[in-house]
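1st attempt posting a full record on here, be nice pls
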Amino acid sequence: MSVQDRLLHASRSRLLGRVAYLMLKSLGVEFPRSVEWSVPLELAHGAVGLVVHSRTRIGSGVTLMPGVVIGRSDSYIPEQAGTATGRVVIGDNVTVGAGAKVLFKPGQELVIAPGTIVGANAVLLESTGADEVWAGNPARRVGTRAVGE
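the predicted structure (as tokens):
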């Protein structure tokens, strides 16, 4: 278990949560404490450069690689308090490849279905089906994952 993985778990603590969050941030991982996530969650290779939107929900068995961004497609527009809508929901046993961007539109719930693989440097702008493989910019379905992989 990497230092980042340990800090991520510690960020759930009432006592050490804020300190762990700030330490994660200093290591190049932006993972707000408001993110809902299940164990196990792997921040592969320390996931340096990882940025996760605060309203994201992550299932169990998920692997996030370095450089992944999960957020709004309109981040150039400031969010107004109380008007923020949309989020990303990541199902169980999903792998998001290095440098991939998963971007939702205002009001959209973008769902990465269980078993999906998002390829390295892909730009995912739409929801996926279960056990699919997505790649490219913009990402498109390029195949399916054999059950049990």
